[in-house]
Amino acid sequence: MSLAxxxxxxxxxxxxxxxxxxxxxxxxxxxxxxxLNAPPVDGQANEALVRYLxxxxxxxxxxxxxxxxxxGRNKTVRVDGITREALLAALDP
Length: 93
What we know:
The chain contains 2 helices and 5 strands. By secondary structure, it is an alpha+beta fold.
């Protein structure tokens, strides 16, 4: 899934499922808090997170990988094709 050449960024995310509106809720100690409408059931929140990041960052969903935290609220996400600085700037509320 990783690009052979080009930038890649990893970011720590804390998901807040079942929120009334989706979006970045801020940064807390280097962790991006993201609100999602989806419930944390059967991977729905993970799918919603990938969809949200794809749209917010302007990268295809297949360039976003959940590296760790598939079953919890704290997740590590890798995004290929974007620098860390660009990723954080795009998510800055």
